[in-house]
Amino acid sequence: MMNFLYHYFDKSTGPFRNLSDLEPSEAERILNDIRFQKKGFASKRSVDYLTIRRSLEAKARELFIIKGGKPIRNYPHYMTVGECPWLLEWFDEGSLVRLPNTYIREVIVWLGISYIYHIQLL
Q1: Contact in structure between 94 and 81 (CB atoms under 8 Å)
Q2: Cβ distance 117 to 76 under 8 Å?
Q3: How far lies 28's CA from each of 31, 47, 48, 92, 118, in Å?
Q4: Residue 105: per-residue pLDDT
Q5: Nearest to 50 by CA among 31, 76, 36, 70
Q6: pLDDT, mean of residues 46-66
Q7: Mean of the pLDDT values across residues 32-36?
Q8: In the predicted model, what is the mean pLDDT of residues 6-29?
Q9: Cα separation, 19 vs 24, whole angstroms
Q10: Reduced 3-state DSSP string for 37-98
Q11: How far is the C-alpha of 86 from the C-alpha of 7, rounded, in Å?
């Protein structure tokens, strides 16, 4: 059994920062900046990435609510069940946060392009 959830991020921006939390135009501006600077894996994302991402996140949220979940965020933070060290390579200065499963009160996993979690910390 996996006892930890992992969140991967770039040290220059810090953990639990989320493009989806921003207004669409601001998120697109930031992603275009990342593309222009060729910063990590995100710089290779398609032009319609944010549109697809928001659609998938909305579907995951809807499914979470249908199953009885009560999300506390509008958009999920992305995490993995268990360690995935190669994700550190997605960032110029890759780092991680490791959370014991005991800190998580509600978790829903939606399998698709990646794992999507709506989490509520104790």
Answers
A1: no
A2: yes
A3: 5, 9, 10, 20, 23
A4: 59
A5: 31
A6: 86
A7: 86
A8: 92
A9: 8
A10: HCCCHHHHCCCCHHHHHHHHHHHHHHHHHHCCCCCCCCCCECCEECCCHHHHHHCCCEEEEE
A11: 12
Beta bridge partners of residue 7, listed in sequence order? 97
Q: Which helix (H) or strand (E) covers residue 24, if one does?
A: helix 24-37
pLDDT at 45 over 90: no
Going by pLDDT thresholds of 50, 70 and 90, the confidence category of residue 1 is low
Burial 27-53 (b: 16+ CB within 10 A, else e): bbebbeebeeeebeebeeeeeebbeeb
**Contacts for 102 with CB less than 8 Å, ≥ 6 apart:** 122
Output DSSP code: residue 34.
H
Strands 109-111 and 94-100: unpaired
pLDDT average, residue stretch 33-57:
85
Structure tokens belonging to residue 69:
């979940």
Q: What is the average per-residue pLDDT within 11-17?
A: 92
Place of tokens 């991967």: 8
| pTM score of the predicted model | 0.74
**Residues 7, 78 contacting (CB under 8 angstroms):** yes
Residue 2, classed as helix, strand or coil, is coil
